[in-house]
Amino acid sequence: MDRQRISRLAHADHPIAAPLDDDSVRRLLARGVPHGDARVLDLGCGGGEWLLRALAEHPGLTAEGVDISEISLAHARETADRLGVRDRLVLHRQEAARFTAPHRFDLVLCVGATHAFGGLLATLAAAREHLAPGGRVLVGDGFWEGEPSAEAIEMLGDLTDLPTTLEQVVADGWTPVGGHVSTRGELDGYEWSWTGTLASWALDHPTDPDSAQALEAATTHRDGWLRVYRDALGFLCLVLRRTGD
């Protein structure tokens, strides 16, 4: 069972692939979309949920999404058809770090997918290349909210604390114009949904050849969350403009 299918199954009940509730997503998009006819790009879009919500909210908006997972992109197409926004959505199956476009975008998103670029600052460097003058970036990444163990660092990478993260972003030439730090409820709710949805699928499909592996993946993920990083990891979303724009 490949990781892309595991992720698609695990996010069935929490289509935003990050620890954010619907109100937080709505507020971030309201801050990030600069006007109703904006052109929006999501690098590492997964099932396209951010784009779909923006398209539904703004009838003049157009959007493009980039992801390597065909199963997630197929889900995005099906949902876009159902919502009646398919004609304003273009999806690209390729590595986000290799994506190029002949035009710039008013909003560039990358929430929970900074690993595709090698970290937060590398993600912002890539986003800068796609950004129209006066445009905004909506980026989401982890930070250390508590003291991480060596195992947590090995599992999740060499993150920094919240003040240091903001200092690095500002020093890189960006000004925060909005943001959100996920609450404990959002963080726990996301993990319970991820593990519980995947485990439920496995139990509901006992004869599927992938059932045992899905249940094992849910158990392993839950143990890592509870034993390794639950008390250390936070999640931050920032809406950014280039300083001087």
What descriptors fit this protein?
245 residues; alpha/beta; 7-stranded mixed β-sheet
Which runs of at least 5 residues are low in confidence (pLDDT < 50)? none
Fraction of residues in helices?
A: 40-55%
With helices defined by DSSP (H or I, 4 residues minimum), what is the helix count? 9
Order of helices and strands: HHEHEHEEHEHHEHHE
Note the topology.
Blueprint: H1 3-10, H2 22-32, E1 39-43, H3 49-57, E2 62-67, H4 70-83, E3 89-93, E4 105-111, H5 120-130, E5 131-144, H6 150-156, H7 162-171, E6 174-181, H8 184-204, H9 211-229, E7 233-242
Parallel strand pairs: 1-2, 1-4, 2-3, 4-5
Antiparallel strand pairs: 5-7, 6-7
Helix pairs in contact: 1-8, 8-9
Structure in words:
By secondary structure, this protein is α/β, with parallel strands linked by helices. Helix content is 45%, strand content 22%. It contains 9 helices and 7 strands, in the order ααβαβαββαβααβααβ. Strand 4 (105-111), helix 5 (120-130) and strand 5 (131-144) form a beta-alpha-beta unit. It is globular and about 55 Å long. The N and C termini lie far apart (46 Å).
